[in-house]
């Protein structure tokens, strides 16, 4: 197995629980939880391999496939596999899950084993697989927070976050070579930041870069940031189930319908961190908003860094936005993005217009040597308005989106120096600020290619 980076602290915690096992009277149950691709399985496998000698009676492993295309493994079939591994002849196994569970617990009594229940879907899936005598250690990994397991079954939850920047860079260097990273430290730092320090994304990017050993990292950075569909670079051709989109989709598709809709609409937020009040205002006409947020937090598609704040991981944010574009009516998207933005800033006051630009796409462009960021819907649906006086033509890409930019600033107003007119400012800026900003003018028309 490849080397694990940046997990020294968590490994220390696992070691402490292992040491405590000897003094405890109950079996040790540890739940390693975190977002998709953060490294839960890798950590559990690596640690159990290193600590094999602490479990003289051996280890049991099952991949419960809680978040995959295929159906999750049932407790019955996991128990069948475990009992067979423990030496029980297949023909002697009872049918009912509670009988299998009782037989399994009896077989484990007095043994010192490590039981690894990997990729669990829910507490219910793992409960019949938990030993009830001391001596063994069970590690469950899951994208779910498994709160019920902590409350009812005494699980100690170990939350796994993304890697630090230095650990992410070491991971990248391990795959593409330290020479390349040392040669372009800034580009390497920007690349790991694009991956949001998520181990799975770092691995996919590393493999992509390793296939092109002579290309400078800065060129890749330009390609990746210039692509309006940034998640494209985290696809894995030839192995679609490893693509980041697929890995995220298993969590997304497991959500109840109203919750998955809330998730994708939150992707329209300009910022990855959102105030709870902003969300409640945007969904003011809907019920159970708090409960749906709790489900999203439980499934690690959202985190809550403070009681009144919610945060989407950078790549999850892109994914949510992409799902919103694919699944929602464009008119509704515009409307919802406005509502979300309005909630962010409070109700528009007199003199401030309330027409935020729906930031569906962020696209880096270069204009007269200056880099800027332009928000675009690739279909150009939202970007309408009169061509501002003095604006010149500029086509920064070949995707068919036509953008006209005047001046040198970071974009973007959709109107000229004369102000925004009756429709209001698409960025939600006060009228006075719009009128004065002669240099910040952008004009876009719907894509000719649709
Ligand atoms: N700390 C790390 N250092 C190096 N590589 C890592 C690290 N953590 C994870 N990886 C690698 O990242 C990829 C994703 O890790 P892993 O499958 O363990 O994630 P996971 O959290 O179990 O995902 P899922 O939610 O899909 O079960 C794997 O290739 C793994 O080897
Ligand atoms: Mg896993």
Q: How would you portray this structure in words?
A:
- With 450 residues, the chain is α/β, with parallel strands linked by helices.
- The chain folds into four domains: 8-159, Rossmann fold (3-Layer(aba) Sandwich); 165-244, no CATH class; 255-345, Arc Repressor Mutant, subunit A; 362-445, no CATH class.
- 40% of the residues lie in helices and 14% in strands.
- Strands 2-3-4-1-5 form a five-stranded parallel sheet, with helices on both faces. Strands 6-8-7 form a three-stranded antiparallel sheet. Strands 11-12-13 form a three-stranded antiparallel sheet, with no helix packed on it.
- The longest helix has 16 residues, at 330-345.
- The radius of gyration is 26 Å and the shape is globular.
- The two termini are 47 Å apart.
- Bound molecules: adenosine-5'-triphosphate and magnesium ion.
List key phrases describing it.
450 residues, Rossmann fold, Arc Repressor Mutant, subunit A, 3-stranded antiparallel sheet, 18 helices, disordered C terminus, binds adenosine-5'-triphosphate, binds magnesium ion
């Amino acid at each position: 197995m490849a080397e694990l980076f940046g997990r020294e602290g968590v490994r220390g915690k696992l070691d402490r629980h292992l040491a405590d096992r000897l003094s405890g009277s109950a079996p040790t149950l540890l739940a390693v939880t975190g977002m998709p691709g953060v490294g839960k399985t890798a950590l559990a496998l690596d640690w159990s391999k290193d600590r094999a000698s602490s479990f003289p009676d051996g280890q049991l492993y099952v991949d419960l496939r809680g978040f995959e295309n295929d159906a999750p493994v049932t407790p019955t079939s996991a128990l069948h596999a475990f009992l067979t591994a423990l030496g029980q002849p297949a023909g002697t196994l009872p049918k009912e899950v509670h009988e299998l569970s009782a037989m399994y617990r009896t077989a484990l009594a007095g043994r010192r084993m490590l039981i690894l229940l990997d990729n669990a879907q829910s507490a219910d899936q793992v409960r019949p697989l938990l030993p009830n005598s001391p001596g063994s250690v069970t590690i469950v990994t899951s994208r779910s927070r498994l709160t019920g397991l902590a409350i009812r079954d005494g699980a100690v939850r170990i939350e796994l976050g993304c890697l630090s920047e230095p650990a992410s860079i070491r991971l990248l260097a391990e795959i593409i070579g330290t020479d390349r990273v040392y040669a372009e430290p800034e580009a390497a730092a920007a690349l790991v930041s694009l991956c949001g320090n998520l181990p799975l994304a770092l691995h996919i990017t590393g493999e992509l870069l390793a296939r092109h050993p002579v290309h400078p990292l800065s060129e890749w950075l330009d390609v990746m940031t210039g692509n309006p569909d940034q998640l494209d670079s985290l696809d894995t051709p030839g192995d679609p189930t490893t693509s980041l989109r697929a890995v995220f989709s298993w969590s997304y598709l497991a959500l109840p319908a109203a919750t998955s809709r809330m998730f994708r609409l939150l992707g329209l937020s300009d910022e990855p961190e959102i105030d709870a009040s902003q969300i409640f205002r945007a969904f003011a006409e809907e019920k159970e908003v708090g409960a749906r947020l709790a489900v999203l937090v439980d499934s690690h598609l959202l985190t809550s860094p403070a009681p009144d704040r919610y945060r989407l991981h950078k790549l999850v944010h892109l994914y949510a936005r992409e799902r919103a574009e694919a699944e929602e009516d464009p008119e509704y998207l515009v409307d919802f993005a406005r509502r979300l933005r309005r909630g962010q800033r409070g109700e528009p006051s007199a003199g401030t217009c309330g027409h935020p630009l729906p930031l569906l796409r962020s696209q880096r462009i270069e204009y007269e040597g200056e880099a800027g960021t332009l928000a675009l819907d690739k279909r150009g649906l939202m970007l309408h308005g009169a061509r501002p006086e003095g604006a010149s033509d500029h086509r920064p890409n070949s995707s068919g989106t036509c953008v006209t930019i005047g001046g040198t600033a970071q974009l973007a107003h959709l109107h000229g120096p004369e102000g925004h007119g009756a429709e209001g400012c698409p960025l939600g800026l006060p009228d006075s600020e719009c009128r004065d900003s002669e240099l910040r003018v952008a004009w876009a028309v719907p894509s000719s290619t649709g």
